[in-house]
Amino acid sequence: VPNVARIYKQDNRLWIVVGDENYGEGSSREHAALEPRHLGGCAIVVKNFARIHETNLKKQGMLPLTFANPSDYDLIQSGDSISIRGLSDFAPGKPLTIEVAKRETPSKTHSISVNHSFNSDQIKWFQAGSALNQMKKSMQNS
C-alpha cells in the first residue's frame, strides 16, 4: 500500500483501503493511522476494525467505515473507483453509501451500504481534518 499511495499522493489522487477482519490489529496502531492520512488516504472500508485503531483513524481525520453486509467486501477489486455518498448529511448512526465503478466497466456502478461509529464530536474531527485541527479551531473561536 505505501508505494502505491505515494504515487497517488504525487498525482493528487485520493485513495481508500478495503480490508477484511480485525483491521488495524497490532502494536504500532498510532503510526498505522498516521501513515494513510500522510499519504493522502481518505477512508478505510473493512468488515470490522480493531477497536483502538478505529478511534485512532478518527483522530487523524480518516473515515473508518464497515460494510453493512460483510460479503460486500468481495464486490470490490483493486483498481475499482469508489465514491463515498452521504457525507453532506454525515450524522451519528446514519449509514453512508459507497458507489463502486468497476475498472473493466466504469460506466456501470453499484451501491454498497457502509456504517460508521462516529459521534457528533468525532464528526467535527473529520470535518476539520483531524482531532488536533478541531482542537485548534475551538481554541481560536474561544
TrEMBL record:
GO molecular function (one): 4 iron, 4 sulfur cluster binding
GO biological process, one term: tricarboxylic acid cycle
Residues in Aconitase A/isopropylmalate dehydratase small subunit swivel domain copies: 2-69
InterPro entries linked to this entry: Aconitase/3IPM_dehydase_swvl (IPR015928), Aconitase/IPM_isomerase (IPR050926), AconitaseA/IPMdHydase_ssu_swvl (IPR000573)
Pfam annotation, one family: Aconitase_C
GO cellular component: cytosol; mitochondrion
Source organism superkingdom: Eukaryota
Listed name of the protein: Aconitate hydratase
